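Hi, here's the filled form for the chain we discussed.

Project: internal
Contact: R.S.
Residues: 121
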Amino acid sequence: VQLVESGGGLVQAGGSLRLSCAASGFTFDDYTIGWFRQAPGQEREGVSSISSSDGSTYYEDSVKGRFTISCDNAKNTVYLQMNSLKPEDTAVYYCAAGEFYTDHGEGMDYWGKGTLVTVSS
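And the returned structure, exactly as it came back:
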């Protein structure tokens, strides 16, 4: 079982990035996929989630209206489109898969290694 994030990088404030999370060794169909982030010196926090079975989505207030999560079950890949990025969005972003989403990630069983997003002011 493996989750691999990609798409991170350096972007100026106001810019956009699209993160990808590719899964192998299992299928998304029965899982909730979550995106989380951890900034330097801070605890990990939830960002967004999507249910692969019905497509329902959830966003934390900090990213609502700016980030969009989507899932391509055929490719076993989840995306996080991030627009209007702010310096406070700088963090390592992780995707995870599990039974349910909480903002601390307790319901997640599988985790990727993360991809770094840096937003300059």
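Let me know if anything looks off before we file it.
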